[in-house]
UniProtKB/TrEMBL annotation:
Organism: Devosia marina
Top-level taxon of the source organism: Bacteria
Protein name: Uncharacterized protein
């Protein structure tokens, strides 16, 4: 061991988890593990590799690009937004 804590394969890196928690809380959204895991999957998809090696600015740009793309697809389908986009917040009570 080199003294650094190893992330288990497939785990959301701690720096991404911190960024996502701060991002969601700044927007008065709940920072649940499910939501953070979904954000990590989306950001990793946009970045084309694991998001662990990137900065907070890169995370934010990738998340915004993902949301913009999802919004564009939804509008093409005649929807105001993706049908599941806000479901979590409504059911959090």
């Amino acid at each position: 061991m080199d003294g650094h804590r190893q992330e288990r394969p497939g785990a959301v890196p701690a720096d991404f988890r911190r960024w996502a928690q701060n991002y969601l809380r700044a927007r008065n959204e709940r920072a649940t593990s499910t939501r953070i895991n979904a954000m990590y999957d989306a950001v990793s998809l946009v970045l084309g590799l694991t998001a662990a090696a990137h900065s907070s600015e890169a995370y934010e740009r990738a998340w915004e690009a993902y949301c913009d793309g999802l919004g564009a697809i939804s509008r093409e389908r005649g929807l105001e937004r993706h049908p599941h986009r806000y479901r979590g917040a409504a059911n959090d009570n």
